[in-house]
């Protein structure tokens, strides 16, 4: 989702209203286990491998990501242990959280969710690839943010019975999803996503980027409200989304203002965008 509407700091009352209206799913024990191990002074890759291997879906997702274009070419990994070693802690956490989130939305319309998660996964891979060329922007953080920037959409579908129709209507016609959400539900997936990220233990940088990724004024917000490292993640995702839109004909095409702001912030030229088209076409399409 990329259409934007003005964002301002939430008042205490508004935040409580959102918290009371939206049912944020509890963090699953397997996510808590991975977080606990990842936050140790010396995390054990063997322990992480054992946790991931305990879930068939997570095992398959880890191996698939380890063999994706985001990682250096070479021999294909075939075991969870190999995948964990290649991916590293941050990407393993992304895999575990992503699969856990998909599991919480298994009761939702399968066709809608398949398109949603396929789009999120493709965008995440594109953002990770693009971040490689920009000093100071972590590819794994770019991947994680792009994967979860819209993760509250299934949460809102679960909370509000008529949300799915609103979501698909916005997708089919290119309407502003955030504006429709605020009009109908008095909250939006950016705020709900921020709450979800905080509840599930994602970093403050990722949570802040999710909170403001639809804000048209994001590039002029003070550093204390939206740190530049979080803003960089938004910019990379916007450019990745713009590039992917040319291949997928996505109704949520990035607006010109958002795209130009992202290019300016990162110092990306039109020639570099053309090169990125070639990179994404070769790596992902």
From TrEMBL:
InterPro entries: HDOD, RNase_Y/CdgJ. Residues 24-216 form the HDOD domain. It comes from the Bacteria. This is HDOD domain-containing protein.
């Amino acid at each position: 989702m990329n259409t934007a509407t003005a964002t301002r700091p939430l008042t205490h009352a508004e935040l409580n209203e959102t918290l009371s209206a939206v049912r944020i799913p509890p963090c699953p024990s397997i996510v808590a286990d991975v977080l606990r191990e990842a936050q140790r002074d010396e995390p054990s890759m063997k322990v992480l491998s054992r946790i991931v291997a305990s879930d068939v879906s997570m095992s398959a997702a880890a191996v698939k990501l380890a063999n994706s274009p985001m990682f250096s070419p070479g021999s294909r990994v075939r075991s969870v242990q190999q995948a964990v070693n290649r991916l590293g802690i941050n990407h393993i956490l992304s895999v575990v959280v992503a699969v856990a989130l998909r599991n919480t939305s298994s009761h939702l319309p399968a066709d809608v969710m398949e398109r949603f998660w396929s789009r999120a996964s493709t965008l995440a891979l594109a953002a990770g690839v693009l971040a490689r060329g920009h000093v100071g922007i972590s590819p794994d953080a770019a991947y994680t943010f792009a994967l979860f920037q819209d993760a509250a959409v299934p949460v809102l579908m679960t909370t509000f019975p008529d949300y799915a129709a609103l979501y698909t209507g916005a997708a089919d016609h290119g309407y502003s999803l955030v504006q429709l959400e605020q009009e109908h539900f008095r909250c939006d997936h950016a705020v709900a996503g921020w709450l979800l990220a905080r509840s599930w233990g994602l970093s403050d940088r990722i949570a802040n980027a999710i909170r403001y990724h639809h804000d048209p004024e994001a590039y002029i917000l003070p550093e204390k409200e939206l740190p530049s490292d979080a803003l960089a993640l938004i910019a990379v995702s916007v450019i990745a989304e713009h590039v992917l839109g040319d291949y997928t004909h996505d109704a949520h095409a990035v607006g010109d203002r958002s795209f130009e702001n992202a290019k300016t912030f990162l110092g990306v030229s039109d020639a570099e965008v053309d090169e990125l088209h070639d990179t994404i076409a070769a790596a992902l399409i």
